Amino acid sequence: MAEIVEADNYEGIITRIEHKSRKIESLLKQYKPVEALKTALEGSPPKTKDERCKSANWIVVHRAIMAIKDVDSLFSALDPEYYDILMKWKSEKVLLKFQSLSFQEIADKLFELMVLQCITSCRYLYRGLSTGDRPTCDQCLRIHEKLTEKAGLGCILRCLADTVNPV
Amino acid sequence: MAATSVHKFAQCISCHAWSPDLSMIAFCPNNSEVHIYKLSEDKWEKVHVLQKHDQIVSGIDWSYRSNKIVTVSHDRNSYVWNQEATGWVPTLVILRLNRAALCVQWSPKENKFAVGSGAKTVCICYYEQENNWWVSKLIRKRHDSSVTSIAWHPNNVLLATTSTDGKCRVFSTFIKGVDSKDSAMGSSADTKFGEQIVQLDLCFCWAFGVRWSPSGNTLAYVGHNSMIYFVDEVGPSAAAQSVAIRDLPLRDVLFLSERMVVGVGFDCNPMVFVADESGLWSFLRFLDERKSASSSAKYGGSQFSEAFGKFYGQSKFSASNNVEQSRGAHDNCINCILPLAKQRKSSVTRFTTSGLDGKIVTWDLQKQEDLLDYL
User: Fold this and answer.
1) How far is Cα B357 from Cα B262, in angstroms, rounded to an integer?
2) Distances (CA, A) of A57 to A28, A40, A115, A139
3) ipTM for the predicted complex
4) Which of B144, B208, B218, B225 to mutate to test the interface with A (most CBs of A within 10 A)?
5) Alpha-carbon gap, residue A11 to B232, rounded angstroms
């Protein structure tokens, strides 16, 4: 019984990843690499220990990472996008108190949320570096430099310490 | 400058404690000894050396009222030191541990002390008058890993612990015949010894440095993933906040008031966290203003050598260039922070920090105008 559930789960995850992949391809065709990266990072990593799912997801993220030509503009373009994430996080217990805050105060907290999001991308950068592939490593190192400049060393620590969500 | 005095006592300091009148300081220079220094005419003089432990002393606490020192060590033992005419006289406390003792703290009433250990246990020790003997009661089978830090609630019964299994837990330490059931304790007086009140699963990696706010309403602890956690109304309806830190992780925390917390750790610079009117905690700023290292930009390799120096806790790597000027009061990991007050108060403006660089630094917030609002 447990195996069947696992198989269903596998099919579901793969379908989602395929859907995500198509969306990313269309965004890249419209010259929206930042949007594509955001889509790739959304909802990831899939909470599964299945190596096939992880690899499929990584291929999609890798495609989006490699499509980024201008690393500087990536980080300047990311900021305003995080209002959406805030809305998503509002339901989380930890951030319940946001409801009572003014717009300005929320804006101040956005940096913190961005850092949280950075943990996810940081983890993918390390996966990229572990491939040993020259262009991938070049690109990942470039983004890594900018990411730590922007989000500090804390996100590396959180990435290393997170044993619950491996990519 | 927020740092009012910096004094290098040793190569490395594992922990320190102040005497009740703040005239003396006890610290462990990262070996089996405890050195006691006295301030006389603006100079620190070594007055006593407490030698009884066999291995590194990992925790010292000096009681406010009874003037007793308790020390714990990796040798699995604890001693309570009494000052008598001949000097400091030790009494061995049998902890019954099979791993190192890691931290110690007197309870607010000073009739008990708690020891956290690598044996996944917490010892609650109390004095038995009839036997002239310190007895240790163990809280066992509750922690899945070493207990890294402990903190007494002001009511003298609740004890918070952090552990390398990532959890923060709160226990009742009510001992019949030692604690009396009075109304000040509220519902915690009804609980049995060793009963777990709450377990907080916020952190997924090592947790360090736990403290209660002066009133006991808020609990703060830190994780090795560069996070600090604040918990209000500890109990069944606890409300938790996690604050991600931009920089390196913290090792210890201290409440200066109900609304201000100072965290110290691997960044060698105390961080100030404050709560706004709605009770939302956030990082405010670093306490040590460091000049931006403009000189480091001129030298190609200096950034590397500074990092290298930091790594080994030595300043010689950067001595050859001007980076030295940009350093703050501490130049290695800070692992201990204590309030500098003659009694337990609801807010403190002075505190001391010690770390792996062997320095003890006194900080005063009196001239930090932006921080005084939070005291």
Assistant:
1) 19
2) 17, 8, 22, 18
3) 0.71
4) B225
5) 42
CB pairs A-B closer than 8 Å: 60
The contact set of A with B (CB < 8 A) is 93-94, 96-97, 100-101, 108-109, 112, 115-116, 151-155, 157-158, 160-164
Please count the other Cβ atoms lying within 10 Å of the Cβ belonging to residue B236.
7
CA distances from B116 to A137, B33, B101, B122, B196 (A): 44, 20, 6, 5, 16
Scanning every residue of chain A, which has its alpha carbon at the shortest distance from the alpha carbon of B242? Answer: A94
Amino acid occupying residue B190: D
In angstroms and rounded to an integer, the radius of gyration of the C-alpha atoms of chain B is 20
Nearest CB among B206, B244, B278 relative to A116 is that of B244
Taking an 8 Å cut-off on Cβ atoms, the answer to whether A153 and B226 are in contact is yes
Percent of chain B residues topping a pLDDT of 70: 87
Spatial contact of B15 and B57, defined as CB atoms under 8 Å apart: yes
CB-based contact A154 B248, cutoff 8 Å? yes
**Residues whose CB is less than 8 angstroms from the CB of residue B148 and which lie 6 or more positions away in sequence, other chains included:** B102, B103, B116, B162, B163, B164, B206, B207, B208, B209
Q: What is the pTM of this model?
A: 0.79
Q: Which two tokens stand for residue B152?
A: 């007494």
Which residues numbered 275-294 in B keep a CB inside 8 Å of some CB on A?
Answer: 278-280, 282
3-state secondary structure of B352: strand
Q: What does the block give as tokens for B132?
A: 């002239």
Please report, to the nearest 10 degrees, the dihedral formed by the alpha carbons of residues A55, A57, A63, A68 taken in order: -130
Judge whether residue A113 has pLDDT over 90.
no
Q: How far apart are CA B282 and CA B275, in angstroms?
A: 6
Token representation of residue B91: 């009494």
Residue whose token pair is 């390799």: B301
State both tokens at B222: 């830190």
Rounded Cα distance between A21 and A60, Å, is 6
CA distance B224 to chain A (A): 7
- Residue B193 tokens, joined: 């010894």
Q: Which residue of B has its CA nearest to A158?
A: B225
Query: What are the pLDDT digits (tens) for B85-100?
Result: 889 999 999 999 999 9
| Superfamily of chain region B9-288 | YVTN repeat-like/Quinoprotein amine dehydrogenase (2.130.10.10)
- Of B314-318, B336-340, B352-356, give the lowest mean pLDDT range: B314-318
